[in-house]
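Entry 14. Ran structure prediction on the chain below.
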Amino acid sequence: MPAVAGLLLAAGGGRRLGGRPKALLTYRGRPLVEHAVAVLRAAGCDRVHVVLGAQAAAVRKRAELGDCVLVDNPDWEQGMGTSLRAGLDSLTGTGVRAALVSLVDQPGIGAEAVGRVLAEFRDGTSLVSAAYEGVRGHPVLFGADHWAGIAATATGDRGARVYLRDHAEAITLVECGDVARPYDIDTEADLVHLE
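Output, structure tokens:
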């Protein structure tokens, strides 16, 4: 049983992209969700859970997600917090000791940055975040001891922000600005990053 599982949040509906689900945006000829899973695997996550929401059936049909555990989030429209809770719930009871959380809409963050965060895992108390010029970003690793607290505070589009702010002194920051670009694909203008 792997100690750390990859947890990919891929449920967003792409509101500012004209309602195109981010998981299905094309990147290098394939759905973006496939690229994000491949990054987690290349970084060393043998077990990957993918939270789906917007057009989940179409994502399942078009994307080759192999042996990933696919988690449906019926409440995805309420924001990323619901996807984070659904993903952590899906890992509860699996024996996994930490979740390495990444976002489907950040293709500029590759396996090297994810691997650096993963390498800082110690045990269930671990709280690790990538940083870009010292500023906390994604991916983030949550030891299992933190899951209940995160789930209790993950609301709307804030995800774990409140929890991380309240536990800032416990976070191990891992600088990744030299190997990754942490942009999001949120608007039409951002689509240039996919070309």
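The longest helix spans residues 32-43. Will compare against last week's run tomorrow.
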